[in-house]
Amino acid sequence: MTRLLALLFLLLSAPALAQNADPYAGLAGDGYAEIEAGVSGLAASGDPRAGAILAALADGRLLVRPADKALFIRQGGAVVDARTGAAAADAADLKPVKANNRVRRAIEAARGQLDLASPETGRRRAAADAVFKARDAAALPALDAALAREKDAGVRQAMTEARAAVLLARPGTPEVDRLNAVPPIQARGDGDAMGILRGLGSDPSEAVRAAAARGIAAIETRLAIVGALQNVWYGVSLGSVLLLAAIGLAITFGVMGVINMAHGEMVMLGAYTTYLVQELIRAKMPGLFGWSLAISIPCAFLVAGLVGVLIERFVIRFLYGRPLETLLATFGVSLVLQQAVRSLFGPTNREVGAPAFMSGAFDFYGLSVTWGRLWIIVFAMAVFFGLLFVLRKTAFGLKTRAVTQNRRMAAAMGIRTPYVDALTFGLGSGIAGIAGVALSQIDNVSPNLGQGYIIDSFLVVVFGGVGNLWGTLVAALTLGVVNKLAEPYVGAVLAKIGLLVFIILFIQKRPRGLFALKGRAVES
Amino acid sequence: MSPRSRLIDPKGWIFLAALGAFCVAVPVLNLVVPEGSGLHLPTYLVALFGKYLAYALLAVSLDLVWGYCGILSLGHGAFFALGGYAMGMYLMRQIGPRGVYGNPVLPDFMVFLNYKELPWYWYGFDHFAFAALMVLLVPGLLAFVFGWLAFRSRVTGVYLSIITQALTYALMLAFFRNDMGLGGNNGLTDFKDLLGFSVQSQNFRVGIFVATGVALALGYLIARFMTVSAYGKILIAVRDAESRTRFLGYRPEHYKTLAFTVSAMMAGVAGALYVPQVGIINPGEFAPGNSIEAVIWVAVGGRGTLVGAALGAVLVNYAKTVLTGAMPDAWLFALGALFVVVTLFLPRGLVGTAVERLGGRRAAAKLPPEPAIAPKLAEEGQGS
Fold it and tell me: What is the arrangement of strands in the sheet containing A78-81, beginning at the earlier edge strand?
């Protein structure tokens, strides 16, 4: 059986072999055309030395002795015989085999074919993809052979697609083969597949043209859906960033009613804490680097929370009931914090590294999903539900709600309201700090980090309805998704402006936000 | 209850007299006193003082809405910048063929961006009268529409502040776009002359300084006229108890919209006077931080006093000039601290506190009420 296959293989490779029965002779030949034929022949021959020889040729290390056309490879200082790999005894009077662009392309294709037989799944898959892109008919025999022995389903599929692409690109494929080649391409369903099917528009066979047209329609539908889903995904990702930035504000502004213009600076402090923790870990315990973000979370919470408590104790508590004055005072605090960080760390961006689990991307049914974004979404949700839990199910949350709903009654029940105020403000600030840990991964860690988020955060909280955590969640995700869906049509800046105008108009219509809390409070 | 206020009260007389003296002294020291003399005022200082006066007019316009109407606008910089852009467009058209590319109609940046003809909204800006009209109309119209929508929907307090901030932020993003046809990132600059006077010349500098001083005086008088009239009484009533005023049969949104619109026009004029003195207008003027900074000028001087707003603007900007020159790092610390200290310890500002000390209770009664320090959260039922 194996022999039969080998025979078939040989027969299929006949055109290449006919020119040069011995590929080594071709490589040692005088013209580029001969060298090119030699490269293709070597790849098809299945010679175990082929990989090393092609690599040498690509690097200009393949040498030829013009006298007897013997081939050698320079390895470091030594020279070995190309056919056997044994050290060459007599290696004088050598000159390198030259390659032009055609030859280099042939080398690329040939190495791709060799990789089809590689024991590593990843390399076989990459080789199949390369064949798909190149659509080189010369790869067909190697591809068929590889397909016959392939076990891995994913690689098999890639090879089937590659084979179909080659068959469709090669002149002279019988109609039935062309027709059979359409479904695998259609199943691939990406832009490349679309290009191949478009190319069939001038196919002589009507059946093939019809199949191609159906395939194009199917792929177009699929691509439109995937494109929309990809935008929704980006939107959810942006929404989770907005949620992270706004969620602390949902406590300080939403629950306590304090206009904290220094909220963005709490986020910034969290990001700088992450930077410091990472620097410390790099210097003292490099092994822990993968854990640096996890370690940063409690640190950022404590730093930002502590600063928050200090702001509450020294500034805000004198200004309760005077929201506009609070706004101005906290804006002043934000300027001081920005300048303090600028003086300490300098005005330039600081480098915060990403641990291994945050980097890279994977393909999810055609959607490209980066791990970093995915983790940020997961993290935003965790923070949100954690906060919800704290406010709803803990004694501290109960006291917070009691104080904000009816301060005097809460005081009468023995709750130390100033203490609760400070801690609640600290909680909101601390959560902003945690957000800073996540945002340090996707934004520049600079003293201006917070300014970019403050307006967005306020709009999210106001849009969602002040005092309503679920409203904040819905608002953040809605704004994120709408923004990303609009972006392909009008551009990023106009989408953002449109969103701002929309919120301004929305607040006119529903001044208390999307999910207003029921009540009959008349303002002032 | 209180007797009808005079149009110009004692502190108004002091203010107008000081302003008049300043507007006479600066030109004399610059033009008449010879250059070698120790008393001579260099021309760059004239431009600097002119800038302060433009800021003072912006502060007066802000005080009109914040001090007398309770509208804390965090977007007044937008009206200032729009007025500035209107003036900038006129100045751009005046350059004519003297630009780098020598195009008689298109400003340089349009030639650079391959514009074939002038966008429609640039028509008419070659006439000073039209540009001057736009300086008033564009900010006024925006404020009218925005204010009418917001006040009719009873958007008040911090919500209003936040959406005014969103407004100026959105405008900033829009003006940063090159497609806007207003110079994008770089804005409008490289001005040559205004009404035939070279903007670089000493005489022009002095002239526009005096013009700014006159505009400030007029702005003060208009604001003062509005606030001491019967209209002003209702305005103050709206500030102190909007719901109660509404229940008495007034329409607060009408009063607020009028004040907001006049104030925006005043800010536009301030911007228009500011641009020829600094020689550039760019989208950075829309930055929300600028608008908030203007609020602190008013707070330092004392809101609800008009005079204090002008004084605060000049003092804070003078401090900024000195500090950013001497210790650049310290300026933001100082400004930040100023915000905190003024709101905590000087809620009525310099002039308000002075009036309270010197004028007794009757004078102080006209100032905005000092809000209760005690937490009001419970009464307001916030967060419930």
Answer: A78-81, A70-75, A62-65, A95-96
Under the banding of pLDDT at 50, 70 and 90, the label for residue A18 is: very low
Same domain, residue pair A168 and A267: no
Residue of A331, A419, A453, A506 best to disrupt the B interface, most CBs of B under 10 A? A331
Q: Which residue has the tokens 């027709």?
A: A179
pTM of the entire predicted model: 0.78
Contacts for A2 with CB less than 8 Å, ≥ 6 apart: none
Instruction: For chain B, give the number of residues.
Output: 384
Bridge partners (DSSP) listed for residue A68: none
The two three-digit tokens of residue B288, written as one number: 């929300």
Task: Please tell me which of the candidates B165, B243, B375 has its beta carbon nearest to residue A407.
Answer: B375
Compare CB distances from B243 to A467, A505, A524 and report the shortest one's residue.
A524
Residue A256 and residue A125 share a domain? no
B340-371 pLDDT, tens digit each: 999 888 888 888 888 888 866 666 666 666 54
Of B288, B374, B381, the CB nearest to A321: B374
Q: Is residue A204 part of a domain?
A: no
Say yes or no: A242 and A340 in one domain. Answer: yes
In the stretch 36-55 of chain A, residues with CB closer than 8 A to chain B read none
Would the CB atoms of A336 and B337 count as touching at under 8 Å? yes
Domain housing A162: 2-172
Please state, in angstroms and rounded to a whole number, the distance separating the CA atoms of residues A180 and A136: 19
Q: Count chain A–chain B contacts defined by CB atoms under 8 A.
A: 175
State chain B's mean pLDDT as an integer.
Answer: 88
Q: What is the ipTM of this complex?
A: 0.84
Q: Any chain B CB within 8 A of the CB of A461? A: no
